[in-house]
Amino acid sequence: MAGWNVGDIPEQRGRVAVVTGANSGIGYVAARELARRGARVVLACRSEARGLAALERMRGEVPGGHVELLRLDLGDLASVREFAAAYEETYERLDLLINNAGVMAVAEGRTADGFETQFGTNHLGHFALTGLLAPLLLATAGARVVTLSSGMHLRANIDLDDLDTARKYGRWLAYGRSKTANLLFTHELARRLAAAGSDVVAAAAHPGYAATNLQTAGAKAEGRKGTERFMRVGNRFFAQSADAGALPTLYAATAPGVAPDSFIGPRFLMWGGATAGSPRAPWTLDDRAGELLWERSERLTGVTFDQLKS
């Protein structure tokens, strides 16, 4: 694994991949490199304008690549359902679902369905998307689901009695909880896939400290200019590039032998390459918490994984 890079990505011709949040950052790089290796890639983006700009840019960088755009707003379950329906009308298989999109450390707010923004977008949106696309994933030999978490999951376990962090909201607390939810989802999904005898692999990844607009988007939207400047300085002088930050995602998505429930991160925790067995909090491997979060997520979203009943 040492020195693994995009040149090691196996041939992807004939495979279909969906990458959420593919208009910038880690998602854009992952989508581009998959297209470069021959995959048919669907950019799942909230903003149609930014998605179209990314599509045009990617087609210029990967001439002849098979790249398409479908709108997806993970903060709106109606949009998630519309995306899944549109995808199923066009594609007969799904080899790779990369649950990449997310928001970070934003002010307290609500999704279209009334959930706390970070939990609703980062976890519930991807939970629903994966569930709606599960029949195609299960019908595609060797499919994978890669969900992006973060080292910030170490900051907070979820509170099953306060999934919305409503008692005392803190932007970083809510973000950490949403990233723990991503890991618990991967853990429970891997368990259910194994119990069903499926060869679909569910794995998680994190980019370390990578320079993307994730760090600055929240502060910019809220007009917190000091925080925005601070984040930009950090990105410029301390972060690795988005290309480097995407390596754990691409490794989890394409490298041979990735084990179910792997957590792939940078070799040096925050920077450098990709390695399996990135440090994770013990609470992300809690079978009971994973099962309870799954059950509550099904109730909240109305999406059930019928073929993966516990």
Question: Mind explaining what this structure looks like?
Answer:
This protein has 310 residues and is α/β, with parallel strands linked by helices. It is built from ten helices and seven strands. It has helices at 25-36, 48-61, 77-90, 117-139, 171-195, 214-222, 225-237, 242-245, 247-254, 287-301; strands at residues 16-20, 40-45, 66-71, 96-99, 144-148, 201-205, 263-264. It has a seven-stranded parallel sheet, with helices on both faces. α6 (214-222) runs antiparallel to α7.
Nutshell version of this structure?
By secondary structure, this protein is an alpha/beta fold.
Keywords:
44% helix, 310 residues, alpha/beta, 7-stranded parallel beta sheet
Choose one word for the global shape: globular
Structural class category: alpha/beta
The proportion of residues forming helix, as a percent range, comes to: 40-55%
Number of helices: 10
* Low-pLDDT runs: 230-238
Q: Return the string of H and E elements.
A: EHEHEHEHEHEHHHHEH
User: Strand arrangement, largest sheet?
Assistant: 3-2-1-4-5-6-7
Mean pLDDT: 90
Beta-strand fraction estimate: 5-15%
Straight-line distance between termini = 34 Å
Rg is 18 Å
**What kind of sheet is the major sheet?**
7 strands, parallel
Number of strands: 7
